[in-house]
Write a structure and sequence with these properties.
It is built from 13 helices and 12 strands. It is α/β, with parallel strands linked by helices. Helix 5 (113-116) links the parallel strand 3 (100-104) and strand 4 (124-128). The relative contact order is 0.16.
Length: 378
């Protein structure tokens, strides 16, 4: 039995705020703060030249990431954000005029712009049309063409929380010899994701949303069978096999995913990310997913009972941690909630609610009370 209350105590913002906006950015917690403070205090007083320790901490984080997604450590590289990660794939493949990429018209721009940028090389971009915020597998299949080389899609769609069936999409890509790329930022950390089970070839994510890391650190995963097909388009002194052999300019790239890390990593981000990931693995990704989906179930039921119309799909198999609500005065409602220290998102004229594992029914009931107050008295 998980003692959720003990984890809830790690988040002091709860004393004054109801924070339900993890699809935007997550708050820090006291265990992460302690880890960061300890590291920087050590740099202030003792270990000023921190490089060896920083490399050990980085290796530790990559080990933890490997456990989270079931991936070998040598196939994981750290990046600043999702866009930087996706650009490793977009700019690293050898594109030919007439090659095609399949996206959909419901994506966050991070999973679109890096690929549209390839039009200058003669690459054609096709878009699957969403149906009321859903991307159906049959529509994906119909949109594939003989020249389709890559399909990129989000684990979870940012606007309404629609969870794509990565396993079925991965099978479809393998049948057609298409590279399967996933933007994981709106699911990973709240939902389980096994890159082996889903057949993902390339995955990119930032850490500042559901993984609850600081902004400015994320990672990519690259499957072994496409590893050598991706050229390090951005290379630096750390991309090579022996970086400390300074004057050996002609040496080959590192044999592992380090080749995609051109320079010094975000040490603060590494320390904080590792501390948070240790918490998540301690709780268990399966337990976090159960809690997050239980939050969604409760919100969907209570909002529906109160007469609100949801943009989030009702089928449990396509739900995630995001619940989006239609409202005629969405911007006014958003500001009202903000004034009362209830944090949600205003996205495309809808209220987007995204609680995490430490949130509980008391948070949701406060939100519902303010919703009713706004609608009944304003």
């Amino acid at each position: 039995m998980i003692d959720w209350e003990s984890y809830r105590k790690l988040f002091p913002h709860l004393r004054e705020h109801v924070y339900l906006n993890h699809a935007a950015i997550s708050p820090m917690n006291t265990r992460t703060l302690e880890a960061v403070e300890e590291f920087f205090k050590n740099r202030l007083e003792k270990n000023i030249e921190f490089w060896p320790e920083a490399m050990d901490r980085k290796a530790r984080l990559i080990t933890l990431i490997g456990k989270l997604i079931n991936a070998p450590q040598n196939q994981i590289a750290l990046v600043p954000n999702t866009s930087a990660g996706l650009n490793i794939l977009a700019m690293g493949l050898d594109w030919k005029p007439g090659d095609r990429i399949l996206l959909n018209d419901f994506e966050f721009p991070s999973n679109v712009i890096p690929f549209i940028n390839l039009r200058r090389k003669g690459v054609e971009i096709d878009f699957v049309k969403n149906r009321d915020g859903a991307v159906f597998i049959e529509d994906i299949e119909k949109s594939l063409k003989p020249a389709t080389r890559l399909l990129s899609i989000s684990f979870v769609e940012f606007l309404n929380g629609y969870r794509n069936d990565l396993k079925r999409i991965g099978e479809l890509c393998r049948q057609r010899n298409i590279i399967f790329c996933v933007d994981a930022i709106q699911g990973l950390g709240g939902l389980r994701l096994d890159v082996q089970e889903t057949g993902i070839d390339f995955m990119a994510t930032g850490g500042h949303k559901w993984l609850m890391w600081p902004a400015g650190i994320g990672f990519v995963y690259i499957a072994a069978h496409i590893f050598d097909r991706i050229y390090p388009a951005q290379a630096g002194w750390l991309s090579v096999q022996t970086p400390w052999d300074f004057f050996n300019y002609g040496q080959p790239f590192a044999e592992n995913a380090q080749r995609f890390e051109p320079g010094t990593a975000n040490t603060y981000g590494i320390i904080a990310a590792a501390a948070m990931l240790e918490i998540m693995l301690e709780i268990g990704p399966e337990n976090i997913e159960t809690k997050v989906l239980g939050n969604t179930d409760y919100l969907v039921r209570k909002l529906t009972e109160s007469g609100y119309r949801l943009f989030t799909h009702s089928e449990p198999e396509v739900r995630s941690g995001i619940v989006s609500v239609y409202h005629d005065r969405a911007e006014e409602l958003f500001n009202f909630l903000k004034e009362n220290k209830v944090t949600v998102s205003l996205r495309e004229g809808k209220i987007r609610i995204s609680p995490h594992f430490y949130n509980d029914q008391s948070d949701f009931d406060k939100l519902l009370d303010y919703l009713h107050d706004f609608d009944n008295h304003s």
